[in-house]
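Can you give me the bound-state structure? Components:
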Amino acid sequence: MSTEGLDIPMTDEQRFIFDIKGWICIPSVLTKNETESIRQHIVDLKNNAELIDPLDRYTLAGPAQILLDHPVVVGVLREILDNDRNDDCYGFRCENSFSIIRTKGQTGLSPHGGHWHGPHGYRVYRDRIYSGLTRVVWELNPVQPGDGATAFISGTHKMNFSLPEIHTQHDSPLLETYSCPAGSVVIFTENTTHAGMTWNSDTHDRVAILNCYNAGLVQYHKMNLPYSVVAKMPPKRQTLFRGVWQHDFTNQKPNNFFSQENMAL
Ligand SMILES: O=C(O)CCC(=O)C(=O)O
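Here's the bound-state model for the whole set.
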């Protein structure tokens, strides 16, 4: 079913789980066709990039562009990062995107996480989550139990003591992960300790896109994205890449638009 134009708010259960664990998995978000074309885009980026239009040679472009403000992700990010500034401008911003193609035996980073106290940190204030630096993982192939996708030490986004050395390794018994069909999404605050586990599937690679978001007035990653890539997007999606400031008092202008001059660095 196409979800274009739909408003899909975060559910109370999703909010509860996100707050207690620091991450949620929402299964079967994409259609089969969407999943297949986006997975092919990621595989082509790796193997045949020269055949792709240069402006689409990004993990957030081409068919993967729709993931940036997929209604399921927007519904969650509005609740945990920022509400829309108005009907035409998102409150949160996108600030990084990369993909993973992981074959059997390949491993990602060992357990790490931000645990920041500043604007990138996780907090709850007056019934509202402020997730800080937030990652959205799109699994484009099935993840079966034991395959080994991203794993988390749930609850560490609110931990009060340093992570013991023993839990900074991939064999920490506290790491927990998910299984899900292709086309599912996992959203986590980067304050939760997380790791890229060894991929174990005999039948297929792990193929995933990992997009990163933040509240409107904070930036962690330097984006280095050409203007022409963003210019190909619909206007509201472009506002995910606007500059990081609130109000221009000289010109009496709030920051609720994207332009070549108003693009995050
Ligand atoms: O490789 C993975 O599955 C996790 C990616 C990761 O560690 C990160 O986004 O910081």
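A couple of observations. The chain has a mean pLDDT of 97. Residues 100, 108-109, 135, 149-150, 194, 196, 210 surround 2-oxoglutaric acid (CB under 6 Å).
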